[in-house]
Amino acid sequence: MEINNPRGILLMALGMALFAVADTIAKVLLEHYPPAQVVFLRQLGLFFGVNFIMLYNLKWVGKSQNLTKQLLRGLSATGSAVIFLFGLRTIPIADATAIAFVAPLFVIIFSYFILKEPIGIRRWLAVVIGFSGTLIIIRPGFEVINLGHLFIIIAALLFALRQIISRLLAATDDPVTTAFFTAYTSVFIFLLFQPWVWTPITNTNHIFLFFIYAACAGTAEFLVIKSLQIAHAVVVSPLQYTLLIWVTIFGFVIWGIFPDFWTFMGAGVIIATGLYSLHRERLKNRVEDNFS
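^ that's the sequence the OP posted. Answer follows.
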């Protein structure tokens, strides 16, 4: 496929804006419904999206050469989504988003231990500094640690595991196939819990919000996948940090909450180390290209 970085940048930026809308709506809905129900209805958006693509193309995409890895990715995605919402219930959306940015640092760690990729001392140092940014936001010892912070960190870890499995699957499975297994795995798992957690949706405004929530999340997922298909990852990945801008704006408009100085400071440290890691990745790829 021909590389088109400008289009990839546009798709990634739009995907992050839609994810911000979805996360904001989720926090509103969490005031009335349990996380397992909210995530279930979100994943239905991806589920119907995948099935629509199959019907449109008249092509079955549910066949994988790596079924175990696909199911493990689906479990990681499912766990990450619901645990993130458990955290989002108790802390501001901007704080949750900023802490979640440690996911790329977990990716570096997993790359070393799972993919056996060589990681230089500079990138290890970036990981250490990045995690210190998380401590700046949480400020253990100065404030009572909210359990929500720990939920977000666990969600970021599972999200990073999902990314690592995606790399392992990229050589053999189409991205739509990966989306298929993620959608079907998560919907099946959450469907099992609905008899115990389901809260009737009687408010017509909530029905509308759930529809927009699922549509935004499902569309954003496909936009990000497409962006990474048509553009270089090191070019479009920094656009993921625009998510913090959007959720900060939405958080202030809806709840009147603006992140404090330490949240911005910690987020800045995490983002800076993430961008540095992307820079080192680009340099490594350039060297490899020169010698290939």
